[in-house]
Amino acid sequence: MQATSTKPIIAFHHVNKIYANGTVGLKDINFEIPRGQFLVVVGLSGAGKSTLLRTINRMHEISSGEIRIDNEPISDYKGRALRQLRCHIGMIFQNFNLVNRASVERNVLSGLVGYYPTWKCVLGLFSAADKQRAIQALKRVSLTPKIFTRADELSGGQQQRVAIARTLMQDPKIILADEPVASLDPRTTKDVMDTLQRLNREDDITVIVNLHSVALARQYADRIIGLRAGELVYDQPIANVTTADLDRIYQAN
Ligand SMILES: Nc1ncnc2c1ncn2[C@@H]1O[C@H](COP(=O)(O)OP(=O)(O)OP(=O)(O)O)[C@@H](O)[C@H]1O
């Protein structure tokens, strides 16, 4: 298990999220995530896993309560402060969100979008130093030979690793991964999960992953939290997690 600092990098205090149509996304969520933890979030479809992840980078706004990152409340961040927050939080999606017709290099460099004016990104005007960083990022995900390949010519697992390399350009302190392996086969799933684990361990990046697979959750997590109908119903370090516990979370009612 990964040794983690006890100082929380993320803290939820009485967080509620109610969508405009009245659906409760999150209900009185309270927990802290220590820096460097590999946290897996499990729960039935609709339990609130994506909502929880997306409140951390303010893709979704909370309705009440407080989220702190590095002990700073983030709800009032605007403009530059919000951009900076998002710069240091990488996000990985189930469907990779790559530009299919662009090269791997171009996709990785697009992780710098928060650091460059948009027009420079569109024209691909990146510095030689940043191009070198892109090569290094691809090395970290073992994809250097694919640098000039078009993204849509890669396998799903390779595409997800390009997405991870893209987040590395942000120099992230947190990576949020929303069902990152849901559309992958078992072998490429292992490549992607191993890559996330390596970055967590080697770079001390705090990783939060939503997973449907209980087996994967048990294999990679330092800690598992479980959501049901927007409520945090389970929170245990991996050493205490039992199959019976996880079965209970996956009971529909
Ligand atoms: N934009 C939205 N407007 C209204 N309700 C929403 C919105 N997004 C999500 N919800 C609802 O909020 C609840 C939590 O959804 P969320 O996507 O967070 O669950 P999830 O656990 O990630 O599900 P899945 O595993 O299927 O992705 C669900 O009832 C969902 O229908």
Automatic annotation (TrEMBL):
According to the UniProt entry, the coiled-coil residues are none
Q: Which Pfam families match?
A: ABC_tran
Q: Where does the ABC transporter domain start and stop, copy by copy?
A: 10-246
Return the protein name: Phosphate phosphonate ABC transporter ATPase
Q: Which InterPro entries does its entry note?
A: AAA+_ATPase, ABC_transporter-like_ATP-bd, ABC_transporter-like_CS, ABC_transpr_PhnC, MetN_ABC_transporter-like, P-loop_NTPase
Q: Which UniProt keywords apply?
A: ATP-binding, Cell membrane, Membrane, Nucleotide-binding, Phosphonate transport, Translocase, Transport
Q: Which GO terms describe its cellular component?
A: membrane
Record lineage: Bacteria, Bacillati, Bacillota, Bacilli, Lactobacillales
Gene3D superfamilies found in the cross-reference section = P-loop containing nucleotide triphosphate hydrolases
Identify the species of origin. Answer: Levilactobacillus acidifarinae DSM 19394 = JCM 15949
Where, by residue number, does the polypeptide cross the bilayer? none
Q: Which CDD domains match?
A: ABC_PhnC_transporter (cd03256)
Give one GO molecular function term.
ATP binding
